[in-house]
Design brief:
about 350 residues, globular, 8-stranded mixed beta sheet, alpha/beta, Rossmann fold, single chain, 10 helices
Length: about 350
């Protein structure tokens, strides 16, 4: 697995922002638009009387016995996020089936219950995967992006060998596996001015609508005055999901201390210049089980990984390489599809621990 950032995206911020806003899904980086992704939505009632929405890829000519690719989105993401669309394009190209479950409140409609979602929500992951597994003839291939990847790795570690009948392999992409380190990084400097403001502009109004649903759930004035994720988590995320405070939440929900317990094939992808995830916080070979693989290229930004000799570039190399990794480790009966053209290369930072 190899990646090198294009010369025209020189550092982590540009490698994060450009792909999210302007990266193309055409594998050649051409300006012609990729065919739109068609989703079909199902609403699932949860055991606690709430609901989640799950989007299923429609425009795919799946071959008989084709695997299911499941993608858990990141903080405030959805099936419309650029990474979800690029993975859907790759699944469509390979003839795989695909599902994108939405964390509560992220599908465009506020969920009914008092809870929302959080970085260590492995119980929700478990319920969703078990239900999706009923549709598949074989264990699932599961990707988690950023927050979703941390929760996914918590799930894999929590279940150990018992995860194998549900998921053939799992992959986290740009996940803050050490939540305290990631929270500190996004709360200072230019990160605070760009990314913290972006997330808070979505999360605070949604939380205040939740307060209208459930009066007295938390202190609305304090939340409206919150200026970073630490304060938001202290007032909203932590107490609503059974944590004492932000420190308790970030410590108990981090996947990094649990990685030694993962017993199924797991790929952990982290760019070493990710603005959200300090390179010093990334897991090393000493932190992981023998079934884990670390891919830590020098560049890529946060869920960026754009490729192309000239702008605008494309964002198809990451999903192509992740799906290529899934094929042999998960026992896919057909050979992996060929790589997209113009995939630029560099050496893998770390492999099996």
């Amino acid at each position: 697995m190899k990646y090198v950032a294009p010369w025209w995206l020189p550092e982590g911020h540009t490698q994060t922002i450009w792909p999210a806003l302007w990266g193309r899904r055409s594998p050649t980086g051409l300006r012609r638009p990729s065919p739109p992704i068609a989703w079909q939505r199902e609403r699932w009632d949860t055991p606690d009387g709430d609901f989640i929405d799950v989007d299923f890829l429609q425009d795919t000519c799946a071959w008989e016995g084709a695997p299911w690719l499941v993608l858990f989105h990141g903080l405030e993401g959805s099936s419309a996020s650029h990474y979800a669309l690029s993975f859907a394009d790759e699944a469509r190209r390979r003839g795989w089936r695909m599902a994108v479950p939405h964390f509560r409140g992220c599908s465009g409609e506020l969920n009914r219950g008092p809870r929302a979602y959080h970085s260590g929500d492995h119980m929700e992951i478990n319920w969703v995967l078990r239900r999706l597994r009923q549709r598949s003839t074989q264990p699932l291939r599961v990707v988690g992006i950023s927050l979703g990847g941390n929760a996914l790795m918590c799930w894999a570690a929590e279940h150990g060998p018992a995860a194998a009948p549900i998921a053939a392999a799992v992959c986290s992409v740009c996940s803050p596996l050490d939540l305290a380190a990631g929270g500190a990084a996004i709360g200072r400097g230019i990160n605070r001015q760009i990314y913290t403001r972006m997330f808070m502009a979505s999360m605070v109004p949604k939380a205040l609508r939740k307060l209208q649903q459930h009066p007295g759930l938390f202190d609305g004035e304090r939340l409206a005055a919150a200026r970073d994720l630490y304060e938001f988590d202290n007032i909203f995320t932590a107490p609503l999901h059974g944590f004492a405070d932000t420190e308790d939440y970030w410590a108990r929900a981090s996947a990094k201390p649990r990685l030694r317990h993962i017993a199924i094939p797991a790929l952990l992808v982290n760019a070493r210049n990710d603005p959200f995830v300090p390179a010093t916080s990334l897991p090393t070979a000493a932190d992981i089980s023998p079934t884990c693989t670390l891919w830590q290229p020098a560049g890529g930004g946060h869920v960026g990984f754009a490729v192309g000799r000239v702008p605008p570039g494309h964002v198809m190399t990451l999903p192509a390489q992740v799906c290529e990794w899934f094929a042999p480790v998960a026992g896919l009966p057909l050979p992996a599809a060929p790589r997209h053209p113009h995939a630029q290369t560099s050496e893998v930072a770390q492999a099996h621990g």
